Structures are given as structure tokens and as C-alpha cells.
Sequence to fold (504 residues):
Amino acid sequence: MPEAFFQEDDRLPQTPEPSTMVIFGASGDLTSRKLIPALYDLAASRRLPMEFAVVGISRTEMSHEEFRGKLRKGLEEHRSEEFSEDVWKSFSAGIFYLPGDSKEPRTYSELRDFLRSLDEERGTGGSRIFYLSSSPSLFPAIVDGLGESGMSAEDESSYSRIVIEKPFGRDLASARELNSEIQSRFREDQIYRIDHYLGKETVQNIMALRFSNGIFEPLWNQNYVDYVQITVAEDIGVGTRGAFYEEAGALRDIVQNHLMQVLCLTAMEPPVTFDADSVREEKVKVLKAVRPFPEGEEYAVRGQYGRGWVWGEEVEGYREEDEVAPDSVTETFVALKMFVDNWRWAGVPFYARAGKRMPKKSTEIAVHFKPTPHTPFARAGDDGMEPNVLVIRIQPEEGVSLKIGAKVPGSGFEIGAVNMDLLYGTAFLEEAPDAYGRLLLDLMLGDPTLFIRADEAEGSWRILESVMKAWSEKEEIPLYPAGTWGPEEADALLESDGREWRRP
Ligand code: BG6
Fold:
């Protein structure tokens, strides 16, 4: 086996205790595209105990071998170059499959017996992680089944944790209901609501940049910051997920979770320590301070992509995608103007946008600072003078850049804007671990810092309630050609403030 495969990965913490991860909805895309590759990587870097096991459950009839074969195929597709037969052999020996209907009590008694037998045969130690990656409509039945069968119970030597994939509810009411259903069977510290953005190194780097450097924090407020722009742009369309997307739309798919998390990390106060409660407490305070949206589309714009060109290729419009209604008014683009009404951010607009079929994939936060109070170079021509902008690039080309003014070489005193650039990938020798890998490991180690707390999920829905209500009553939606930065209405949102969106 290649040496590199078994090198210790010292960016990540210690190896967790033995456990079994039970995945509900295991025949779905997430298991083969994200979960198994992430677990495989952890196995390859020796972060998983030898006894660790995965048990997949879904309604499809499949043997253990067939399930392993399906996962292997997915892995080879996603890890074609790094696939190691030896790592797979030992990792896959701990993968099992149980066909079962999650609405049937029998499924849970069979699962409980199977897990007990695994404990005896493999020494999995009695600790369980239940990963709900099935259709959200099944979450309540699964939670009940686990509770009724006694599998949510813990004892001194073993734990029981439950992971809930997004979307966490569809609105505030359903998120509350879901929270109370889960909390009737599991304590809050057993519940891990996952948002894979929090597992991204560069998302965590927002906190590192802000709270490990003395020079930014004094400027990080309404005295110096003019406005902030957050972009979560994707060049891809909805692909094979048309049916899901028709239900979700960009607001529920990206804004409620990923984008709001990025907003929280950008705007929050420094936590006292980097522990779960301190960090999440500060994020919740931001959500509480976000001003409710006024009625109308003045502060919230949506759009849907029509036919167009992305990277030189002609692509279909959203309404032509599989499993999408030909007259759909589902939004594939959202632009928002928000205010965080607290001492630090009073009056500073946070413009945020998220969209599919944009010209390129780009997630970034741009902090635009106020201009200098006076320009001494006026007579020498200050045309080149631009306010400073700090850009935190989350993906791709992960890094940080600061736009500063510098003297243009020559006998005059002309100022030009230049970028000071840190490329994350070249600054460190280590490669960033995958977001899911990081989160799964934290989950096994019992660290919920990078997971969403109940009040966070609800707080984020609360902000968007009025927007969702207004949009649900609309029968039309502004269109934008695929491969552009959204509808004209999004530009107008900033133009009325004398500003414009960045073109990353
Ligand atoms: C998922 C959304 O949560 O995030 C997808 O459901 C989206 O629609 C994806 O494409 C984006 O994630 P990433 O890591 O590629 O930015």
C-alpha cells in the first residue's frame, strides 16, 4: 500500500472510541458521494478505530456485499486516483446493510439485535451514531422508532447520538416541531444538526482570521466597515435534484443554513473560549439581532435561471430540468439586504446572494471598509484611490486578500489599488481535510461546536419567515440567463444604495 496512505494526519484530533454509524436512507446519493468517501479518508489516515462499523438501512433489498459493491463504485468515481485496495479491504469489512422500512417497528428491533451482534463480533463497544440522511418526512418516524426500541438510551460506557441532515424543517413552525420531536427522545447534547459548510477549513478560518489577529478586530465594526457582501455562487444547475429543489428553492437549500452560518461567523462577537456553547451562543445573538425583513421585495430579491451559457456551453433553463414544473416559480437565486441591529453593526448593510448557474463557483465574504477621511493626494490625481476591501475566499482558491492603495511608480503621486494575497493552499503544506470528514470525526469525539444548536436553526428560519410568506404568494419570478450574476433586480438592490455587486 502507498506510504502516504497511512501517514498520521496531525491536523485532526485523536482517534475516537469504537462505535457504529447507522445510516438511514443509505441507498441515497449522500452516502456514496459524501459520507463513505469521508469515512474512507478517515480510515486511510488512521483516524477510525479498527472496530468501527457502518450499518446502512433503506427499503431497497440488498445484501451486505451488494451494498459494499455500490459504495466501492461511488468511491472509485470520487477517489479514482487515491483509491487503495488495502484501505478499502479493511474499511469495507466493517460495512453492513439491513433492508428495512423506517416506519415499521420491526426494523428497529432487527436493527437493535444486529447492533448487539456486531458489538460481540467486532467489539464496536455499544456506542451508536444514527445518521438521518433519508427523506425529511421520515425523520419523526425514525426518531420515534429509535426511542421506542431503547436505542436513544446511553449508559456509562457508551453513547447514542443522532445526526440530522439539512433541510432542518421547511419553516419556523416545522423546525420547532422537529426540534420538539427529537428532543422528546434525545437530549440536546445527543443531537447533531449538520451543516457541511461549518466543516470547511476556510469557513473556520473566518474565526481564525478574526480572533487570532489583533489588527482586524478593532476595525470590525460600524466605525470602519461601510458594508459587507457575502456571495455563495455556483456554476452548476440543479442536475438530477429537480424534485428536491422544487420543494426547497435556494432560500431553503442554501440561504437558511450555509449563508446564515457564514453571516453569523462574520458578524459574531468573539467567544470567550472555542467550546460549543460559547461559539453557538454568540452565533445565536447575531441571528437575534438581524432585522426582520420589511414587506415587499425591496430587501429580498429572487430569480430563476433560464437558458444560457456557462463556461462556453449552452445549458438548459431551470424549467427544462428533469422533474421541474414547466411553469415553476421556484427561486434558484436569492439576494438579500440585511442589517444586524446591534452596537457593533448598527447601520452597516450586509448584502448576501446565493445562486445556481452563475458564471463561476465562488463563495466569499468581502468586508468593504469606509474611505479615508481625507485625501492628501488630491492635486496629484487621486483617481486610483479606492476604499480597502478584505476578501475571505471560502472556495475555490481559498485564501484572504486585502485591497490596498499603493503608489503607482513614476514621478507623480498617483495611487493604484493592489491586492495583498494569501493563498491558503500554498501557505501550509498540509491539505485541508474534507468538510464531512472533519464533522464526522468531531461527532465521534462528541464535540458539537461545529454543529447547529436547536435555537440556531429556529433563529435562522425566523429571519426568513416574512420573505418566504411573500414569495409563496407570487405567481411570477424574475428570470436571469444561466451564466450571469442573477436578475437585474439584484443589481437594483445595491444600486439604490450607490453600490454594486462584486464580480468575483
Ligand atoms: C448543499 C446544497 O447543501 O450544498 C446544494 O443542497 C449545493 O444545492 C451544495 O450545491 C454546495 O456545497 P459546496 O460544498 O459545493 O459549496
User: Anything to note?
Assistant: Residues 234, 253 surround 6-O-phosphono-beta-D-glucopyranose (CB under 6 Å). The chain is about 35% helix and 20% strand. Residues 1-12 have pLDDT under 50 and may be disordered. The radius of gyration is 24 Å.
